[in-house]
Amino acid sequence: MDTMRDRFAPTLTRILDEDPRVAVVLAVIGADAFGEARRRHPGRVIDVGIREQLLIGAGAGLALTGMRPVVHTFASFLVERPFEQVKLDLGHQDAGAVLVSAAASYDWPAGGFTHMAPGDVALMDTLDGWTVHVPGHPDEAETLLRHAVAAGDDKVYVRLSTQSNTRALPVDGHGFLTVREGRRGVVVAVGTTLDAVLTATEHLDVTVLYATTVRPFDAESLRRATDSAGTDVVLVEPYLAGTSTPAASEALSDRPHRVLALGVGRRELRRYGTVEEHTAAHGLDPASLRERIGAFLGRRTAAA
Questions:
Q1: Does residue 135 have a cis peptide bond before it, meaning omega lies within 30 degrees of 0?
Q2: Do residues 258 and 130 both lie within one domain?
Q3: How far apart are CA 153 and CA 54, in angstroms?
Q4: What is the CATH number of the domain that holds 258?
Q5: What would the mean pLDDT of 71-85 be, rounded to a whole number?
Q6: pTM above 0.70, yes or no
Q7: What 3-state DSSP class applies to 266?
């Protein structure tokens, strides 16, 4: 199966053909995949070189002229390194753009910590007005990219991953999907964590919600799920653990509730290893999730 990033360039090339307002801004990474698009649209495929601050600034400049820029590189170079430009050139000037990242969290362990950005969504949370999509399958990535580009002049962050669930679900760029219904707790699985969550909770009497659009946070769906499943909530996120805890707690602020936040830990793993080894080390593999979720919710969650 191809990856989300494999889908990115072909999908965006088709969008460039369809919409003369769209432009793509790159910083070397991914540029080879846009060779044909550059030949067809030489003025709308821009490579600024290894200059990440300029990458964001150029995107903002295009937005201010009425273009719809799609800006792409690794997450650590798209969100963390040029964060001041994201805050000022886009946010302060209220300029809309679509930021599309790759290799977030630990998708490329051999690249080392310089190429990891598990705190990207938490960092974007410090800014106002951003929509954040976290697809869990290449088909979903294609759908959500199209949603992002079509979102007028909004500010949108699309987080691509080399990891994937086995099948795509009909995401709409808005709310959570109910994948399984239960009575003894709610588990929110974000993006590529869904398969592991479903395996881990197979014999637990819990509701599983699937989230691919995490900002704005779908408070209504979470509240509706807790009406029948109770207010014990587990958040499983493929980035920094606890990123969505404030949003979940705010959604349930008028109800006594508990939240268990599972995700990428703060401790830096200094050995390259594999993606699977990093997943297990952060407790996001099915066995670890089963133990942690079961301990939090208690034996009473076992399905009859």
A1: no
A2: no
A3: 20
A4: 3.40.50.920
A5: 98
A6: yes
A7: coil
